[in-house]
Amino acid sequence: MDDTEEMAATPYAEAIGPLPVLRDTTTHVPAWERETSRMGVADSAAHALFRGVDPISPGTIFAKQMDRLPHALVPSLADLSSSITVVRRRREVGYFRRFSSFSEAFHDPVPATPSALELVLPPPYLLPPDGEEPPAPYLTKARDARQGLTGYLVGWHQGEYSSCPLALRGQYYVKAPQWWPDYEVPYGVMAEPPLVLTYAREELRRGDPAAWSVFRAEWAVSTAVALLQAYDERRVVLLYPPRLRDWIRSVGATNIAADARGEPDDEVEGKLLALLRLLDELPHTSAFVERLTNRAPNRRDRAGWVSVVLEVGREGSRALVDEDLAPYELPYSTAVTEARLAVPNPWGAAVARRRHLVRFPGGGDIPPSSAYEPVPPVSAPPEPRPPPLVPPRRGDNAERSQRVPRRIVAADALEHGDVPDHRFDALHHLPPRGVALGLANFLGVDADELERYPAGYLVSALCHLVVDVSQGVLSWCRTVPEEGSTDLEGLLNLVGRRALRDAFTRSLPRVREGAEDRRRRWSEVGDGYPEGPPSRRARLEEYPSGWGR
After folding, report:
1. pLDDT at residue 542 tops 90
2. Which comes out higher in pLDDT, residue 419 or 523?
3. In this structure, are residues 330 and 321 in contact, taking their beta carbons and an 8 Å threshold?
4. pLDDT of 369-426, one tens digit each?
């Protein structure tokens, strides 16, 4: 912008009057009257939006938008847009005048890919903070408005969007195109919507090719800036979709990293290209997203970034993953690689230690009198010896009993009848926050979903899950694999994280229904809920199906 443009813009409070205070309704009507008395804004699309959303009190809708624009400026008539009657902040002065000149000279259809020639504002685009940046919640709400089949492209300043009825949004806002999900940023990315959406909203609604070509180029620059800022501030790379990365490359890392004189910054350009190359190497699958989510189930944005570090070598900058995301083989940093080689897997070490132990019912390493001969430890294989001879039995299994030894030492099997539901039901009033967070981190589920259930239900469902897994393991141990009657792969999958998570989430509604049913039955009897545990036989007869019944 030149000096004449900057001088033409005057702070709104000085040129028109005090801004309306959203929570002080007495300021809405006077502020709206001052706004409507301005020159050149009576027939604007912005005022039509305010009147259309709330015909009775448009001043309240006007206050909701101006509440987000404390740095609003009054532009000159040449720079006055119909989509918004102010300039949001100092760095945007002169934008609409530049866009009008670009649109008049644009006569071609929308190009296949965006380019730097379609950028209205000149560089630099990586600007230092000036105190007029939109807060993060405004950018998050703008992103949320773009989601779903009925999403709309809105600016971060449009606080009135939530007040507009669904049936009227198509008249005042830009409908998100069908291709938009391929270019959307992950949740939590602080990328500002393109400026053309603010100052040429009506042109976008009409499908103007010049406006949409500018929109694509500005979105590529905005997301590239957010990518660089996320690395500088948090040392992470944002997981952009492939087509959005193509737009960034099409505009050009050299143009995005240019300074105020238009000369490229080699360091910034190398950083941006390194981050884009790393994104090309990362898997973009649902399994990889789930792997990231499981690292912090209580963070909604965790699936949208990966910790990285830039290592500079002879070939230039290279971005490497700076967190262990095994079992994925990724271009890890030197620190992660050395840590994986120096520190053994603690889970594997624990399993190796347990292989040396032989446990029996009741604990200890001495077998009870009713136990069979235990299996030797894996680390000390037994000497070869012939299978023990068992007296032949009558029936079809006589031949099998002579050649196959029994393999189980003893079994004190858990059953659903061993789960004292009445004790867990008494915990229904306890806050489940700690229990929910612990289970969420272990099973890889959303902690907010588990917090809907009382602590007693969570513990009861977990106990029933242990019983189901134990029964599956026992059925495998008691079946001779040579007969082919055991689905070994299916039984082993029972102890996987995904199977446990699915079984646990399925059991929660059953546990809740069972607890509510028991309370209803006891309330009908009139004796209150029992304090002492009922007999196991009576309980199984009353609730034969198990699972909290």
Report:
1. no
2. 523
3. yes
4. 443 344 444 444 444 454 444 444 444 444 444 444 444 434 455 566 556 666 566 6
The residue type at 408: I
Question: Which amino acid appears at position 237 of this protein?
Answer: V
Closest CA to 483 of 389, 373, 404, 374: 404
323 C-beta neighbours (distance < 10 Å), count: 16
Beta strands in 46-204 (DSSP E): 73-74, 152-153, 174-175
Q: Which of 126, 40, 138 is nearest to 88 (CA)?
A: 138
* Cα–Cα dist 530/475, whole Å: 35
- CB of 79 within 8 A of CB of 5? yes
For residue 124, is pLDDT > 90? Answer: yes
Please name the helix (run of DSSP H) or strand (run of DSSP E) that holds residue 313, with its range, or none.
Answer: strand 305-313
DSSP SS3 for 32:
helix
- The partner residues of 235 in beta bridges, in order of sequence, read none
Cα→Cα distances 544→104, 313, 414, 419, 541, Å: 78, 68, 15, 13, 5
Both tokens of residue 149? Answer: 């089949």
Alpha-carbon torsion (155, 161, 162, 168), positive or negative: negative
DSSP one-letter code for 451 = T
| CB atoms closer than 10 angstroms to residue 140 | 16
pLDDT of res. 142: 95
User: What DSSP character marks residue 258?
Assistant: B
Contact 409, 367 (CB under 8 A): yes
Contact 142, 155 (CB under 8 A): yes
Tell me the residue ranges of DSSP E strands in 211-297.
236-238
Strands (DSSP E) found in 137-229: 152-153, 174-175
152-153/73-74 β-pairing = unpaired
What is the three-class DSSP state of 22? coil
Q: Which residue type occupies 113?
A: T
**Which residues, at least 6 apart from 162, have a Cβ–Cβ distance to it below 8 Å?**
141
- Which distant-in-sequence residues (6+ apart) come within 8 Å of 513 by Cβ? 548
Q: Rounded CA gap, 534 and 532, in Å?
A: 6
pTM above 0.90, yes or no: no
**Residues near 276 by beta carbon (within 8 Å), at least 6 away in sequence:** 245, 248, 249, 253
Tell me the three state secondary structure of residue 173: coil
Residue 193: which of 207, 174, 166 has the closest Cα?
174
Length of the chain: 549
What tens digit of pLDDT does each residue of 58-81 get?
999 999 999 999 999 999 999 999
Q: What are the C-alpha distances in Å from 16 to residues 73, 370, 446?
A: 10, 94, 49
Between CA 546 and CA 549 the distance in angstroms is 5
Bond into 186 cis (ω within 30): no
Burial of 15 (C-beta count, 10 Å sphere; 0-12/13-18/19+): middle
The secondary structure element, H or E, covering residue 476 is: helix 455-477
pLDDT at residue number 151: 92
